[in-house]
Design brief:
The complex is a heterodimer of chains A (294) and B (607). Chain A is mainly α and 294 residues long. Chain A has one domain (69-284): MetI-like (MetI-like fold), CATH 1.10.3720.10. In chain A, 71% of the residues lie in helices and 0% in strands. Chain B has 607 residues and is α/β, with parallel strands linked by helices. Chain B has 3 domains: 13-113 and 183-263, P-loop containing nucleotide triphosphate hydrolases (Rossmann fold, 3-Layer(aba) Sandwich); 295-306 and 319-519, 3-Layer(aba) Sandwich (Rossmann fold); 545-607, no CATH class. In chain B, the strands form 6 sheets. An 8-stranded mixed beta sheet of chain B has the order 18-19-20-15-21-22-25-24, sandwiched between helices. In chain B, strands 6-7-8-3-9-10 form a 6-stranded mixed beta sheet, sandwiched between helices. Chain B has a 4-stranded antiparallel beta sheet with strand order 2-1-4-5. In chain B, strand 21 and strand 22 form a beta hairpin. The chains are: A mainly alpha (294), B alpha/beta (607). The A-B interface holds A 1-4, 6-11, 180-182, 184-185, 187-191, 199-200, 203-204 and B 49, 51-57, 105, 186-187, 190, 218-220, 354-356, 379-380, 382, 384, 387, 391-392, 394-396, 398-405, 413-414, 417-418, 447-448, 450-451, 454, 464, 468, 481-483.
């Protein structure tokens, strides 16, 4: 009983940890289920959507919910339900790419600066602070105006904007691991930084990285949808939630569903991601607030 | 405390038939089984046992505390006539604040880091209804009572500005603030060095007799128990195996477990490592004299500062280096003990040798069969072959192993890294060999560190260090975190390996009894300066540098009679001394390599 407390959780891989977290936490379960449902819908949209998302039908424009169109139609007579079902594809694809890139970059940079410390740490973090101080939407608008609104440009720009935040969180987590004796042992052995990073540090902060991924994804989706809403993301007539809200907000009094449906879809996805992040962080004991969320 | 008579009458703390269990994987695991314990006012009862014996659980129940997930399966705990587990929350809080208090093991963690210590103590006094000024006065009085110097100024400090011993004194002040009737001490001095430990124990002893406390002392250190307790409960796996008066227990342990436990404790009078038989008999292993071998590692005037030298506005404000001009030699096949209080620079020196913090001045060399390498280089710049030859074993085996890597991987990594084995078969074979060398069950190699016991983890740590086939092993307090019986087996292992592989071992420890058992030579370090060095027997026989004498006097023996003798001598003031080393006349040679740094006695007014 005396002496040092020991962790008796035993072997806990990422996958088993995820399953354990799912069993233990309703929050995580609900969140992941929502996200999974959205992914499934986005994948299967061409199969399940009752109409084409881009087919105009002026005769049936601005129709309310009915048997033919469950969620009604918009000003061009396009089926709202079909558009909502398709509308997540662009946002999910771009967000996924941007989040993976941002988290990967942030993780590597955060770990390296935590391990090296000294002037490198100071330099990199001040640069990150400078990037953090720029409002994301503003930065993206500039990038998109200059380089165009192609998906690749957006992915790169969004990941650049979010990398500093991820770096901060991961650096804090890695700093907790860096002074451990097993890292010291690796240094004494003369291991290279990459080797220490992938063998000693990363496996011990993988939970922080996963939670960071889930949380960051919801922010990225919101940002990308905001861009679409402002007209800098998906181009009409591509079905996209942000774009749909922008197109239909003038007719919100006539066909509220045309604006509400994409909002509901976006909200459930973001809430799902947030719930998953919260549930996972609780189940894994990752304290986001303490770890200096940026 | 031994001379004090326990007053008769009703016990303040009375535990009867206490059974605590928790559910794990669908079945009940008993942590404490039918434990009985009674403590009267003015009495100290010690609960001793190794990790997992349930001693802390029992101590916690006195405050009505159960670890998360545990439950009371039977029995009751009466404190001052109240059944703590039947009390409503409000009264339980009143009981915890007023009737029974606790001093936890790690004061650094028990104090709130963001609050001045004075305010924290004031919180403990809240129930008294004092106004601001009276409160401040009470805080100062309490700090004075725990013998802290300059209490008014100290009350305004934050916990991190205090030393470990001072933090523990503040924690004690908080505990006695509400004038409790019972005090629970959970390993109150573990983690403190011997000199500080002596001070804290003396304070606790005086306080509990001044305040007439009923004290429950939880400890794994039998030296502490011998000097503090009136009665002892020995626990093992949740059961009380023996209960007796301190004198009787140490003179004539009846239960075989108690006998083994007592026998495993290294004593400062042992001339070598102790081997404990099945029946608890002790045989002292003779130390083989080390042939006069050439040095493998030699240090000359090594100085190691804190961090990089910064240009400060005040150029003269250069801090004293952690290691200040140390010269020593480590020979092949010998164990050289580095002894000193915390802050004496032992670990800094070890880390520097391992290449983690290059010295700012001086020379550190590795020599072997004509080759000579510079150890002043950081590990990253040393040649692979040199890195392999100098290896470090860590104090805390819990953090020394990557929690996500299996035992076999931890041992295999240096093998592959240093190119000592090629191919899967050879790697596996070598790994198995190393695991067998440290007497670890081969079945454990597929486990993660969290699934091993502390002793097993330390064996893995040693196996990992040995994988590089080193010539020099630096062992930094490797047995400090272990139970005594495990400690004995790890020390024996180290001794065997040293003999078999002709290792040169730098053994860092603050436990003089352990040092006496394993070391061939001893170097005493104080504030980064070597004050004495010599063969173990010579150093322990004396004469000594006054600092060494202080260390020796503070070492606690598992023997109540020697503890009493010390208690009688404790009022004799320690020798006041000042350093008297001058250029060309630093050492006083006593022959056979035993030498003492020059010092002179000074009167109080000189200082």
């Amino acid at each position: 009983m005396s002496g040092t407390g020991t962790d008796t959780t035993g072997r806990r891989g990422t996958l088993t940890g995820l399953l354990g977290a799912l069993r233990g936490s309703t929050t995580a379960w609900v969140g992941l289920a929502l996200v999974a449902a959205h992914l499934l819908v986005a994948l299967l949209a061409p199969l399940v959507a009752p109409h084409s998302p881009v087919e105009n039908d002026p005769a049936n424009a601005l129709a309310g919910p009915g048997w033919a169109h469950w969620a009604g139609t918009d000003q061009y007579g396009r089926d709202v339900l079909s558009r909502v079902l398709h509308g997540g594809r662009y946002a999910l694809m771009v967000s996924f790419g941007a989040t993976v890139l941002a988290v990967a970059l942030g993780t590597v940079i955060g770990c390296v600066v935590a391990l090296r410390g000294g002037w490198l740490d100071n330099l990199v973090m001040r640069v990150m602070d400078a990037v953090l101080s720029i409002p994301p939407v503003l930065a993206l608008l500039v990038v998109v105006t200059v380089l165009g609104a192609g998906p690749l440009v957006i992915v790169l720009a969004v990941s650049l904007v979010y990398t500093p935040a991820v770096t901060r969180v991961v650096r804090a987590a890695a700093q907790g691991v860096a002074p451990s004796d097993y890292v010291t042992a690796a240094r004494v052995r003369g291991e290279r930084t990459t080797s220490i990073l992938f063998r000693e540090v990363l496996p011990n902060i993988v939970d922080v990285v996963c939670v960071e991924f889930a949380m960051r994804a919801s922010w990225v989706i919101l940002l990308i949808s905001s861009l679409s809403f402002l007209g800098f993301g998906a181009n009409p007539p591509t079905p996209d939630w942000g774009l749909m809200v922008a197109e239909n907000r003038t007719a919100i009094t006539v066909v509220p569903m045309a604006s509400l449906a994409p909002i509901i879809a976006l909200a459930t996805l973001v809430i799902g991601l947030n719930l998953a992040a919260d549930g996972l962080s609780k189940a894994w004991g990752v304290d986001r607030v303490r770890k200096g969320r940026a | 405390m031994t001379e004090r008579e326990a007053t008769g009458g009703k016990p303040v703390v009375e535990i009867t038939g206490l059974t605590v269990s928790y559910r794990s994987a669908g079945r009940d695991v008993v942590v404490a089984n039918e434990v009985d314990l009674a403590v009267r006012a003015n009495e100290t009862v010690a609960v001793v046992g190794e990790s997992g014996s349930g001693k802390s659980t029992v101590a916690g129940t006195v405050l009505g505390h159960l670890r998360h997930g545990s439950r009371l399966a039977g029995g009751r705990v009466l404190v001052d006539g109240q059944d703590v587990f039947a009390l409503p929350p409000r009264q339980l809080r009143a009981l915890r604040g007023g009737t029974v208090a606790m001093v936890a093991q790690n004061a650094g963690q028990a104090l709130t880091p963001s609050m001045r210590v004075g305010r924290q103590i004031a919180e403990a006094l809240r129930g008294r209804g004092l106004d601001r000024r009276a409160l401040d006065a009470a805080v100062v009085e309490l700090l004075d009572q725990v013998r802290l110097p300059n209490p008014a100024e100290l009350a305004r400090r934050y916990p991190h500005q205090l030393s470990g011993g001072q933090q523990q004194r503040v924690a004690i002040a908080m505990a006695v603030a509400a004038r409790p009737r019972a005090l629970v001490l959970d390993e109150p001095t573990t983690g403190l060095d011997v000199v500080t430990q002596g001070g804290i124990l003396r304070l606790l002893d005086t306080l509990s007799s001044e305040l007439g406390l009923a004290t429950v002392l939880v400890s794994h250190d039998l030296g502490v128990v011998a000097s503090m307790a009136d009665r002892v409960l020995v626990m093992r796996r949740g059961e009380v195996v023996e209960e007796a008066d301190t004198e009787r227990l140490f003179a004539d342990p009846r239960h075989p477990y108690t006998r083994t436990l007592l026998a495993s404790v290294p004593r400062i009078t042992d001339g070598g490592l102790v081997e404990v038989g099945e029946d608890g008999g002790r045989t002292v292993r003779r130390r083989e004299p080390v042939a006069d071998a050439p040095p493998v590692v030699s240090l000359r005037d090594v100085r190691i500062g804190y961090g990089r030298r910064r240009r400060t506005r005040r150029a003269h404000a250069e801090p004293r280096p952690a290691v200040d001009g140390v010269s020593l030699e480590l020979r092949r096949g010998e164990v050289l003990a580095l002894v000193g209080e915390s802050g004496s620079g032992k670990t800094t020196l070890a880390w520097s040798l391992a290449g983690l913090r290059p010295p700012s001045e001086g020379e550190m060399r590795y020599t072997d069969h004509g080759r000579s390498d510079d150890l002043a280089q950081p590990a990253a710049r040393r040649a692979t072959d040199l890195r392999r030859r100098v290896q470090l074993v860590f104090q805390n085996a819990d953090t020394a192993l990557n929690p996500r890597r299996r035992v076999a991987e931890a041992v295999r990594r240096p093998l592959r890294m240093f190119g000592l084995a090629r191919g899967r078969r050879e790697l596996d074979e070598r790994t198995r060999g190393l695991v067998a060398d440290v007497h670890l069950d081969p079945a454990l190699t597929e486990r993660l560190p969290a699934q091993l016991s502390g002793g097993q983890r330390q064996r893995v740590g040693i196996a990992r260090a040995l994988a590089g086939e080193p010539d020099v092993v630096i062992a930094d307090e490797i047995t400090t975190a272990l139970d005594v019986s495990v400690q004995a087996s790890i020390l024996a292992l180290l001794d065997d390996l040293r003999a078999r592989r002709r290792l040169a071992c730098l053994f860092i420890s603050h436990d003089l009894a352990v040092v006496r058992g394993i070391a061939d030579r001893v170097v005493v370090l104080r504030h980064g300066v070597v004050v004495e060095e010599g063969p173990t027997e010579a150093v322990f026989a004396g004469p000594n540098h006054p600092y060494t004498s202080t260390l020796l006097a503070a070492a606690l023996e598992p023997d109540p009679t020697s503890a009493r003798r010390r208690a009688e001598n404790r009022d004799a003031p320690p020798v006041q001394w000042a350093d008297d080393a001058a250029d060309g006349a630093v050492w006083e040679e006593l022959g056979a390599g035993h030498r003492i740094r020059r010092w002179r006695e000074v009167g109080k007014e000189d200082r």
